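Risk register update: the risk that structure generation would not scale has been downgraded. Supporting records follow, first protein first.
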Amino acid sequence: MKKIEKKHFLYGLSLCVILGVVFQCSKDPAGPVGAQFFERSDVGSEHHVSLFPVSASSFQVPAATGKSASLFVGQSKTLSSVILIRFDTVSTNASIQNTFFAFKFQRYSGNIFSPVQFHCYGIHLEWDDSSSSLPRQLPDRSQWEPITTIEIPVTADTGSVFVDFPIAWVQNLTRTNGQTNLLIESNQTECLLKINSREASSTSKTVPHLLIYTQSDTLLDTLEVYPKEDAFIPSWKYPTETQWLWVQNGIAWETYFYFDLSSIPPEASINRALLFLNEDTLLAIPNATSTFYWTVYALRDTLSDFSSVKLDSSYALTGSWTSASPSIRMTSLVQKWTSHQKPNFGFVLKGAEEKENLMGRGFYSIGSDTLLIPKLDIFYSLPPGTRF
């Protein structure tokens, strides 16, 4: 009997304790007694969150391709490129007997192992190869007759060209108001050739140039005429509104990202932050295994439109990748954003060699499969004892 009474006493005591806690909680809901028993307290473990972009868009900017060390002609899956060359006038009264066009080339992309045709046009066009505003829209050439067509036996990754060139056009170079612009293009799909420009460190015999053989009375002479200016003009074969994001040198595509970081606790300490992208390797220029050098710039202000993107040149991240699923370490920038040292207006990812080379990558955008969407993985720690 005493055992039963003792058991009832313990039950009653336990019930009083529980009722007391509940009563106190109802009196002070902001910080009720006993609430600490139902909270979790951080003990220094690392937390992780994956964020998807609120906004991600690609846009095109001017690029001074005339200052590139290389010229590109031909087509790939995503773009085509033509070459513009301006020769200087030639001072000679001798009779032109023969003319030849010569240069060396390197296969830049494509798997064509067969003759490739290139069409050469004389063109009246005002342009300056030192400018970043080279013409993007060239005259329609569908009704033009080329002054000559060059067939190149692309049977290896490198080669040389030495072909006859029309004397009638070369005679333009001896006139003060003659046509001195030459446009070279190819309609051959999936073959893009790389040629040294006059900006290259070693231009002797490798850049496109003319060999002019003249005769005056009994005197034979050879003139070598090199470009006064040259540039490549790339054009895009994809619509701008697609499921991809682009980062391109030469054609100068850049991509804007904005991630909302409000889910990160204000007292969090950012350990690391990685931006993951998934590449469509078929769109890579020249190929997916070539090293691509990139730069990330934070924005200085809210983005209103892509015609006036204000980059913060005082803070940049740089690196490179060859992987089809590259990652970019964003730790230092995310730390500045979450600590309010720098306002978060988003950032721009661009190529690091926009004036030097023709390279590019295409990535899946926010409209793609969820497994392919860009994401920002953030790992952070909270101070010990933090309630969450």
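Supporting record for the second protein:
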Amino acid sequence: MGSGKGSPEYWVAVVKPGRILYEMGGVTENIARRKWVLG
């Protein structure tokens, strides 16, 4: 009972009020990190 071995159907994250969440697609991780620094 409850061994937790099933495949996840979705991911969740707790985002508190006042926190800004960004999602980037179609770029490498290196480019995304540089864009954060350049802001």
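The chain has one helix and no strands. On this basis the risk owner (M.S.) recommends closing the item.
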